[in-house]
Structures are given as C-alpha cells and as structure tokens.
Specification:
- There is one protein chain.
- Among the domains are: 43 residues, no CATH class; 51 residues, no CATH class; 79 residues, SRF-like, CATH 3.40.1810; 99 residues, GTF2I-like repeat, CATH 3.90.1460.
- By secondary structure, it is mostly helical.
- The chain is 54% helix and 4% strand.
- The C terminus is likely disordered.
Length: 415
Amino acid sequence: MVPEANNLLWAARNPSRPVLVPRAPLNVMQKGHSNVQRASRKISAQQRKEAEDALHMAIQKALSEHEEKTNHLAIEHGITVEKVKKLMGGERHYKGNQNAQLANALVHAKAQEVNADQPRCTKYSLNKICEMVKDDEDMQNLNHVDRREYIQKLNEHRVLQHMSIHATNTVAAHNVQSTLDTIFKMLDNLAVRTGIYACLFASCGHVYDTAEATWFRTDNIMDFWEDVVQMEADEITQKLEQWACMTGLDERETVQNMQCVCTRLLNSGLRTIVKRRDIHINYTNFDTAIKEKLGINLRGWPEDMAFQSPTSINDLNALLKLRNSLKDSSCRWFHMSPHQREEYNLQLTACRKKGEVIGKPWKKCSDAGVPRKCKGKENKCQSKRVRGSGSSVQAPKSAEFVDSSDEEYTSEDEA
C-alpha cells in the first residue's frame, strides 16, 4: 500500500511508469538570455510574415495571369475551360507519409548527442543541429541496418513520450485542457459534417489533481440527460468527480488492479458483440461454450501468453501487455464466418470421434446411477381427485319438503 503522503502526485501513484523530466526553473542570467531570444524570434517572425505576404501576392498575381491564359486558350480553340485545365495537368493533391523519416531520426539522434549535457537557453537550435547532421560523414554514409536502427530509436522515443506520465499536477492539468480543447473541436466539426450527436464528461481521478471536471455536448444532446435521466449536465459531472475521487477504481498498475481491468475489458467486449448482459467468459470450456455454441472467437491474444483467465496471470508485464492490446483493439472479439464455423465444428466432431476430451467435463455426482424419488411424489398421489364410476359426477339433489320446527310454527300462529 502506497503511503498517504506519497499520493500527492500522479507520478508517485504510478512508480512503475516512466516519468517526463520537468524543466528546471531559469536563473537571472538564463531569463535575460531567454528574453533576448524571444525578442529575436519576434523580429524573425515579423520578417517571415512580410516575406510570406509578398510571396502570397506574387502567387495570386501568377494565378490570375494563368486563369486569363486558360480562358484565352478555351475561347481560341472553342473548348471548355475544364478541358483545358485537365489537359494542362489539373490539380493533384498528395498526402505525405506520417511514418518516422530518416532525416528526422538523424536530427533526433544528433540532438540527443549534443544537447544532452547543455543547460537551458544554451542548447543548439534546430538549424544548427541540421547543419551538424550534414557535416557528419558517418551519418551521411549509412547502410540499411543503421538506417533502420536510427528510425527505430526515434519511434521508441515517440512511444515513450506518448506513454510517459507528467511529473507535476500543473503540467498534467495543462495537458488535459489542451487535449480536451482539440477533442471538442474535432467533435464539433464531425457533428457539422455528419450530423452525429456526442457528449463527453471528463473528471480528474484523484483529490490532489488540479484538472477541473468539465463536460461537452453537440447541439441539444444534453436534453436527453435532463428529459430521460432527469439530471443536468453539471450534476452528472459533479457526481462523476465525487465517484472518481472517493469510490473510483485504484489507478495504480498492480497485479490485482490489472487483473480486474483485463477481466472487465474481456467481459464487456463479449457482452457487446453478443448483445447479452448476463454472459461471462468460460475459459475452461471456451472451445465449446463460446466458439462452438455462439460462433464467436477472440483474435489478437498475445502469442507468448497462454489463453487463460486474467485472474490466473500473476506477471505484471504480461497483464500490462494484455491490457494495452485490449485497449487499442489489437485483441478483440469477432463473429466467425459460416465457413469458419463449419470447419471448426468438423474439427471438433473429428476430435470427438477419436475419443479426445474437449474442454473440462462436468464432475459426476457421488450417487450417479442410483434411482432417486422425486420430491413431493407421495403428496402428489394423495392430492388426486377421486372421480365417480359414471361419466360425470352429479350434485346431490335437495329434499322436496323441509320440515320446520315447533318453535317456528308456534311463533307464526301467535303472530
């Protein structure tokens, strides 16, 4: 159990994860140097803006001249402007590759080499590092293996940056706010393009976190919560924050927590694809209870891990690997095609004919084969209705005359 005093920071609550190294505060000399650099960058930005404006004007002038020449050619030869543009090559749009490039990998390696021991405000700039890469003969004459190694190191660095955690709560709160702003803009644009409805609730996960709870909606989707759930968005966000800070799941990456997370992800995925809320994974008889009966299989289970319940796995690294594969959908459920299901059933039939035991059979009762009396059999015989000898049982007939008592007769005479 982590001590209470050690729960202040998100990094302290996750000791097994890498931590992004925070920047040290600037001293007086570094602040002065930083102000000079900031002023220099401002002047350079103004110069670049002026150059870009001049280039923009020149391009607009060239485009207008090109449009006039295109119209002149269309009129001169009696064809449409679209045909002239098509014959001249038209417009082509190319999308660059987003994978790690060798040039970026070399710049990253050189920056790690020359700026590792340099204090802040004295590190080499990007232009200077690019010049160092060009002047380095060893980096210019690389074989195929060395190129792949440089690119692999850059990919590992990017993954580490994305998966590492912030060292302070302030930086984490800034990252939360900037990322949520980006997500909000994307959802707004998506709603305009496609007409979808979307809502999002976000909250911090610990009482010491400084990120504020918030919510987002497109159009009038929040009317759903007020009309159907009878709760306003602010109330939902407040309850979410209270649950996350007081009764939420423990976020530390321990074996017990990762076992619960993997079990929950697997069961929720199966319930989603089966559309049943009362189903659980039968790991022991998975081949018959899930694959044969339901026609559903699991794809992407880690190859170096035997298929079993996450509660039976005690290796934290294996559980983290399984958790990550379930979250990024590399390990997911899928419906078997009719052909796959038929082939699998044929395989099971062949195995059964050979006498192989598939799965784990049910245990036999200790009194198996012994005849047993049904409960309530004796009472059942006694409760049967006894019918008469005829085809139907008639109700008893009433008497034709009813004698009255002397007391009743005497009272009538006296009256």
